[in-house]
Write a structure and sequence with these properties.
By secondary structure, the chain is an all-alpha fold. 72% of the residues lie in helices and 1% in strands. The protein is built from eleven helices and two strands. The longest helix has 48 residues. InterPro entries: Diverse_Substrate_Transporter, EamA_dom, EmrE-like. This is DMT family transporter. It holds the Pfam family EamA. Belongs to the EamA transporter family.
Amino acid sequence: MRAEPSPGSPVSIPSTSTNAPAVTPAVGPTADLAVTPGRRGSLGPVGLVLAGGISVQFGGALAVTLMPRVGALGVVTLRLLVAAVILLVVCRPSVRGHSRADWGTVVVFGITMAAMNGLFYQSLARIPLGPAVTLEVLGPLALSVLTSRRALNAVWAGLALAGVFLLGGGGFSSLDPVGVAFALGAGAMWATYIIFSARTGRRFPQADGLALAMVVAALAFLPLGVVESGTKLLNPATVALGSAVAVLSSVLPYTLELLALRRLPSSTFAILMSLEPAVAATAGFLILHQALSVPESMAIALVIAASMGAVRTQVGRGKAKVKA
């Protein structure tokens, strides 16, 4: 029987070949090292997370330009449907040989993705991209504090949180309260996504679990998109833009994050998510022409410093274990 850690417990899975099945993770205080220090590519998981963050935020900026065509729910529907089709074709996941617990994990993961996307795009329909991501990232930040076993990680989380609020201008009173509520809800789902993405990665080989979960998410959201957008979802130009959003915001980032979470502790991953507002601000500037202010630039520096500190703390802890 496969061991299952408690939600958010730091875990580590040894690097495997791309054709090898997922390995049962070690669980406990000695199992939270992201990768073996000194090994070539030891910062690989961090690079995967950063690449996924860049992809998803530029995809979000592109999605904002698509909303006037089909609405927020229509954009989410296109994104999830196209992503599900792509992942099914590429991964060709097996539906046999999985336990009831495996399927339960996939279903919860899929519903979580649907809720996270739906809430976030509802917030984008009401507030700008930068503040929306700033509020959403509070979910992963809270997770990092709750799951961390080191006081220093709480310090990094606090520093990132200060940057998050600075990026929001020190407050959000000028924003649509409904949009703020949607963004905070998306943040809660994001924290849940981190937990179940890690669990799915441990239970299924490659990205098979992600592909199956994406199908669940797409089917769960399809009725909402049809009700709001109807035949607008079939417009060729809209489908093309929706496909681009799906690749940038779902296929690439979710795959990269799932792979990273096989080797990266949840606490470190969650703090790395504090980079998302900085990436979102950059994407908003380049695509939506939203300029950065001095406080926003300072906030970006804070969240980057917090993320770098979290990674250095994790790597330094691993080196100490090797010396011991």
